[in-house]
Amino acid sequence: SEAACAGAQPYLRLFGLAAGGCYLAKRAVAEVRDGSAGAAVALARYFAENHVTAAQGLAETVTTGADAVLGSSAAVA
Hints:
mainly alpha; elongated
């Protein structure tokens, strides 16, 4: 549907944040279990504090942003 297409780009960005966060967290947990909290933990923390913060806005855009896109294209046509 048009609504699904309108939210596709922010959905892909949101998915990338979720997948990236999961992989980084998995590696960080493994590193902590091995007793060597180093680069993986620091990278996971950086990612969480600086990139994942966009997830809430992207989720809102995915679920409610289609009206803005579809409304503006209807006005142009």
